[in-house]
Every structure is written in structure tokens, then in C-alpha cells.
TrEMBL record:
This is UPF0173 metal-dependent hydrolase A3L02_04625. It comes from Thermococcus celer Vu 13 = JCM 8558. SUPFAM superfamilies: Metallo-hydrolase/oxidoreductase. Pfam families: Lactamase_B_3. Transmembrane segments: none annotated.
């Protein structure tokens, strides 16, 4: 069994034979379900360098010994600026780390941050214990999402931003579901702050029967 736990905003913990933490923005996150010291991980995946995504990755990596996986530029920058961490830099494409299949895929966003440099934004397709999870990162919809489904599907669950302003809104995210064809979809990156307010029930309505929409509150878990 693989468990996908929503930690708030765009942070998720995927648990199976490995513990994979994605975008652990917990400190300063008004909707965070846990504190950084309450999370353990084997791998930490970072989608881009904005503070609400890289978050507490260095601190958690130092405490747990988890490896941080990120865009090559960000990984190198982290090693230069942070002490006592191990990073694995990659770029768009597939790899396998500690038995976990990972594909770093494009995202339409920005990544420049005064603290952590630049590096392109990305999403991740993770296959753990036979379950495939797509974390889109911060992105607008793009047609090549269909290729992701064709190459790496079937996708068991897609984690998609719906908050608008910085990412897709509910309309675009619902269309993305058509392209990705996941079995289940979990909305994320909404209602953390007023600029990204969105109604997940509207998203469910727009998706219709194309996928099962699972609306998780911070701290809740989806079992696959």
C-alpha cells in the first residue's frame, strides 16, 4: 500500500517502501498540518526554488539524512549554501534513486529566488511500489501533459494546483485532467492565502466523471 498525505499548500508525503517528501513548505505555512521536526523522509523532491516550495527541505535533510532531489542548478546551489546535506541534481528526464523511479518533467512557471538562485521549475512523476503519482509543481496547463500520460501512465493520482494567480485555476486544471487521464486527482496550491482562493467543489464539478476527485484537508491521507 502507498499512502499520499497532504501536508498543506503543495507539500505531500508519499509513504511506501520509501518515504518521499515533496515541496516541504511547513514553517510559515498557515495551513501546514505538521512541523518540520515531525516529518521523516528518505528523499525530498523540490519542484522549484520559491520559498513556498523549497521550504524546510535543507533543515529536514540535515536532521533525517534524506537526499534532496532538485533541478541541477538548484541542487548545486543548495550544496554551496547549506551545510550537512546531500543533493542529487537532475534535469528533465527519467532516473531511479534508491529503488524509486522518478521522472522530472517540465512546468510552466518561474523559479528565481533571492536565497536559492534560479533553476528551471519542474514537476515529478514518481513510481513507488507499483503506484504512479504525478506532482505538477507550480504550472499552467500545457498540451504536452498528454505526452506524460502516454509515456508514463497510467497515472494513479495527479496532484494539481487549482488556485490560479500563480498557477492553473480550476478551469485549466480540469482540462489538464483530460490530458493526463489519471485515476484520481487531488487539488493543491489553493486557499493558503487570499490570492489563490479557489473552490475545490467547483473543480470536482468541472472534472465530472473523467477522474475521481479526492479533496484532502491538510493532514489527511489517500491510500492507494
Amino acid at each position: 500500500m502507498v499512502k499520499v498525505r497532504f501536508l498543506g499548500h503543495a507539500a505531500f508525503l508519499i509513504e511506501g517502501s520509501r518515504r518521499i517528501l515533496i515541496d516541504p513548505f511547513l514553517t510559515g505555512n498557515p495551513v501546514a498540518a505538521v512541523k518540520p521536526e515531525e516529518v521523516d523522509a528518505d528523499l525530498i523532491l523540490v519542484t522549484h526554488a520559491h520559498g513556498d516550495h523549497i521550504g524546510d527541505a535543507p533543515e529536514i535533510a540535515r536532521r533525517t539524512g534524506a537526499k534532496i532531489v532538485a533541478m541541477y542548478d538548484i541542487a548545486n546551489y543548495l550544496v554551496e549554501k547549506e551545510k550537512g546535506i546531500t543533493t542529487i541534481g537532475m534535469n528533465y528526464g527519467p532516473t531511479e534513486i534508491d529503488g524509486v523511479k522518478i521522472v522530472q518533467v517540465p512546468a510552466w512557471h518561474s523559479s528565481s529566488d533571492g536565497k536559492y538562485g534560479i533553476g528551471n521549475p519542474c514537476g515529478y512523476i514518481v513510481t513507488l511500489d507499483g503506484v504512479t503519482v504525478y506532482h505538477a509543481g507550480d504550472t499552467f496547463i500545457f498540451g504536452d501533459m498528454k505526452l506524460l500520460s502516454e509515456l508514463y501512465g497510467p497515472i494513479d493520482v495527479a496532484l494539481l494546483p487549482i488556485g490560479g494567480h500563480f498557477t492553473m485555476g480550476v478551469k485549466e486544471a480540469a482540462k489538464a485532467v483530460e490530458l493526463l487521464r489519471p485515476r484520481k486527482v487531488v487539488p493543491m496550491h489553493y486557499n493558503t492565502w487570499p490570492p489563490i482562493s479557489a473552490d475545490p467543489e467547483e473543480f470536482r464539478r468541472l472534472v465530472g466523471g473523467k477522474a475521481e476527485v479526492v479533496i484532502l484537508k491538510p493532514g489527511e491521507t489517500l491510500e492507494l
